[in-house]
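Title: Comparing notes on inverse folding

I've been comparing how different people in this forum approach sequence design from structure. To keep things fair, I'm posting one structure and asking everyone to reply with a full sequence. Here's the target:
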């Protein structure tokens, strides 16, 4: 059986994530902070991914957020450069 994902936060980390959840201008950062806070409360990563976020996510996605946060802090929650859909090349008229 797999080991349960746990996240232990200091009071300062908790306040930082709560501030991001409540005030950050980027929606995805608010969502990721919410996921981390739910896991720190003791909910499973799977439960958070499937029931406690605005959009249902794959559990592995939430696990990656937690691992990146543990390794890099809040900086690890941002989307990395070069990710996502590339802009369409324009033809100059």
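Reply #1:
Here's my take.
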């Amino acid at each position: 059986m797999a080991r349960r994902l746990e996240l232990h936060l200091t009071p300062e980390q908790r306040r930082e994530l709560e501030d991001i959840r409540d005030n950050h201008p980027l929606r995805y950062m608010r969502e990721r902070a919410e996921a981390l806070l739910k896991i720190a409360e003791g909910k499973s990563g799977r439960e958070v991914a499937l029931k406690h976020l605005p959009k249902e996510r794959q559990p592995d996605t939430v696990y990656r957020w937690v691992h990146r946060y543990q390794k890099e802090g809040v900086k690890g929650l941002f989307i990395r450069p070069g990710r996502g859909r590339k802009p369409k090349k324009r033809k100059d008229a």
